[in-house]
């Protein structure tokens, strides 16, 4: 089996794993009451851009080979690094969902009786779910042997991240006040001790 085929199969497993982790939380979130939300046209556009980069564009490539001009033959080392990033992304993704529990939402929502989560993986990092998505985008870049489809995840999720993290932190500060400011002062945004 070629490294390219292994990479494509692993990308499909990455998406399936992501969905399997998220689905029960998404079902539960639909039943919860939202006190405040920042959903709207801008958030919908950001989510669609991210979905396009992490799902639609690579999915089309994996299913059809389009766009062929950007396809290349990956090395086994590249594919192995992609598998390692895939596993790391899914582990991080599961840890973030587990820590958030009922506080999780797909968008920028504050739930009734919302609590600031500062335990588990959130003890040292404010946005470990974003870290998981960055790792997922990196895994995609390594696993999907196409310059357009592989890098689409970094571009798509990067757009969502850079346009969303500021408003999200502002919403958390508005909701939790000094408790959030203290939490922000002692934690990193994505990587402990780095950023």
Automatic annotation (TrEMBL):
Keywords: Membrane, Transmembrane, Transmembrane helix. Signal peptide: none annotated. It is a multi-pass membrane protein. The chain crosses the membrane at residues 6-25, 45-66, 72-93, 133-163. InterPro entries: ICMT_MeTrfase (IPR007269), Isoprenylcys_mtase (IPR054851). Its main location: membrane. It is found in: Membrane. One of its GO terms (molecular function) is protein C-terminal S-isoprenylcysteine carboxyl O-methyltransferase activity. GO terms for cellular component: membrane. NCBIfam families: isopcys_mtase. This is Isoprenylcysteine carboxylmethyltransferase family protein.
